[in-house]
Design goal:
The complex is a heterodimer.
Chain A (H helix, E strand, L loop, with lengths): L1 E4 L4 E6 L2 E6 L1 H7 L2 E5 L6 E2 L4 E7 L3 E5 L4 E6 L2 H4 L3 H4 L8 E5 L11 H9 L2
Antiparallel strand pairs in A: 1-2, 2-3, 3-9, 4-6, 5-8, 6-7, 8-9
Chain B lengths: L21 H6 L3 E5 L2 E6 L3 H10 L1 E5 L4 E6 L3 H6 L14 E7 L5 E9 L13 E5 L4 H11 L5 E4 L3 E7 L3 H8 L11 E6 L2 E6 L8 E7 H12 L4 E3 L2 H10 L26 H6 L5 H10 L3 E8 L10 E3 L5 E11 L4 E9 L8 E6 L2 E8 L16
Parallel strand pairs in B: 3-13
Antiparallel strand pairs in B: 1-2, 3-9, 4-7, 4-8, 5-6, 6-7, 9-12, 10-11, 11-12, 14-17, 14-19, 15-16, 15-18, 16-17, 18-19
The chains are: A alpha+beta, B alpha+beta.
Chain lengths: 123, 390
């Protein structure tokens, strides 16, 4: 399993041609208390850089983009009842959706954990 | 991810100013944003926790961006009554009132607090003066409007050497009375001069959260020491603008620039209480003809409170739509209400849809949301009133 990061603060953990997507700990910290999450449904087609989910904190609504293109296999239903999971465990049980990758070469431009740490440190 | 933070949308001022507590906020761990032309703290530990702390204990807000004015001079009562629909003549010394600065067409230029100062007040020279607090984002326009409309013999001072703190919450009185003995004797909308370690304070029992609490005008050189002394009290934590917004929304209190604009009249905004009885009978304030006609016969649109179904917040800018999806109104404030546990909003709707219980359809980013008109406040006010209001 390999975890990649985007400059829009999503993480994607890849195993073969399937992957899990969420937002980073840095992102949840910036958003603050999350009160609503809308995740894509199974079968939904997402494209790299396109809007895939919505996350709302007390102060603002934000879009979550798909790090890569693919077909959604599952949205995290637990977030509907308890959106605060994104605050408490953003890179674990607060995941947003799983998908089947359309083109694994789209992962090439993403950051690894060390590169993302450097990226966040400079913000 | 993109973050279209509501507060950051308001950046218009080219030069961002700092307030006397700027360094203090940063040392307290605040996240700073630009608001009303100033660097201001939006949150410290988090909006939700700060909001709930104010409802349970006491929160310290820095509202020094607001404009504190002292107005004095011959016939100042009549001069103010020509600009505001308040019964200024009937306002006793040390009494405060909520009022509205009105344009000639009855539109709201600002909402404000007005108090009559006692003789020998700590805010300036001369007798029979008034103290006015106006919104930060509108204070320069207000000053220009007041200066243009007030006779030259009336002095108008912007008290920009004073900071303004608000201490809000059910335990605010315990905390502040410990530091400034005597403030507990004030009732809601009463005010007085107090001394704190040699600093001349002007303290009113008022605020904008729906809770009991105080607003404290303090010389800027003493504000950091006072803020330190307040947060050293076990009841008090510093609170940012984020929670200030969610608290006032739950209290049903409109925010200028959002729920109130120059296109809004007092009756549309459901602020009829700000039109005092004598002024309704006598008129003589800007826009009186239109405002009084609306007060008697109703306005076409009305500000109402809404509870929103589901969990997704519906925010400022969302549309109120009819059964065919045509726009008939607009959400002017909205968000998740921490003390209510669901999304709430304020909207302007046609008067026929303003009765509590009415089902309302909202449309936000192409998505429909069901809402219901409810009476405001969403969370009961807990003001501490003493004696009969004057």
């Amino acid at each position: 399993m390999t975890r990649y990061f985007t400059d829009e603060h999503e993480w994607i953990e890849v195993e073969g041609d399937t992957a899990t997507v969420g937002i980073t700990d840095y992102a949840q910290g910036q958003l603050g208390d999350i009160v609503f999450v809308e995740v894509p449904e199974e079968g939904c087609e997402v494209s790299k850089g396109g809007e895939a989910a919505v996350v709302e904190s007390v102060k603002a609504a934000s879009d979550v983009y798909a790090p890569v293109s693919g077909t959604v296999t599952e949205g995290n239903a637990a977030l509907t009842d308890d959106p605060s999971l994104v605050n408490s465990d953003p890179e674990g049980s607060g995941w947003f959706f799983k998908l089947t990758l359309a083109d694994t070469s789209e992962l090439d431009g993403l950051m690894d954990e060390a590169a993302y740490k450097d990226f966040v440190a400079k913000l | 991810m993109t973050d279209d933070t509501l507060f950051e949308d308001e950046l218009a001022e080219p030069e961002i100013l700092t307030l006397p507590l700027d360094g203090w906020h940063r040392s307290q761990g605040a996240r700073m944003v630009e608001f009303a032309g100033y660097h201001m703290p939006i949150q410290y530990e988090g909006i939700m926790a700060e909001h709930l702390w104010v409802r349970d204990a006491a929160g310290l807000f820095d509202v020094s961006h607001m404009g504190q004015l002292r107005i004095a001079g011959p016939d100042v009562v009549e001069a103010l009554e020509a600009l505001l629909p308040a019964d200024v003549a009937g306002l006793g010394e040390g009494r405060q009132r909520y009022s509205l600065l009105l344009a000639d067409d009855g539109g709201i230029l600002d909402d404000l607090m007005l108090a009559r100062l006692p003789a020998g007040d700590p805010l300036g020279e001369g007798e029979g003066a008034f103290y006015m607090v106006v919104n930060g984002a509108t204070k320069w326009d207000d000053l220009a409007h007041l200066r243009e409309r007030l006779d030259d013999a009336i002095t108008l001072n912007l008290l920009d050497e004073r900071a303004l703190l608000a201490l809000q919450g059910p335990k605010a009185v315990e905390a502040l009375d410990r530091l400034v003995p005597g403030v507990a004797a004030l009732g809601f909308m009463q005010a007085g001069a107090f001394d704190w370690n040699g600093a001349a304070l002007w303290v009113s029992r008022s605020g904008y959260t729906g809770e009991d609490g105080f607003e404290i005008s303090v010389p800027e050189e003493a504000v950091e020491a006072l803020a330190d002394a307040l947060v050293a009290q076990p009841e008090v934590k510093p609170i940012g603008l984020g929670a200030r917004d969610s608290l006032r929304l739950e209290a049903g209190l409109p925010l200028y620039g959002h729920d109130l604009t120059p296109e809004t009249t007092p009756v549309e905004a459901d602020l009829g209480f700000a039109l005092s009885k004598r002024r309704r009978e006598e008129g003589g304030f800007p826009g009186a003809e239109r405002v009084l006609a609306e007060h008697a016969g109703g306005s076409a649109m009305k500000r109402v409170g809404l509870t929103v179904e589901g969990r997704q917040p519906v925010r400022e800018g969302a549309l109120v739509v009819d059964a065919e999806g045509a726009p008939i109104g607009r959400v002017t404030s909205g968000g998740f209400a921490p003390s209510v546990g669901q999304p709430i909003a304020m909207a302007f709707v046609p008067a026929a849809l303003a009765a509590p219980g009415t089902a309302i359809q909202l449309l936000q980013r192409g998505k429909p949301h069901a809402a219901t008109v409810v009476p405001m406040p969403f969370v009961p006010h807990r003001y501490v009133r003493k004696g009969a209001p004057k």
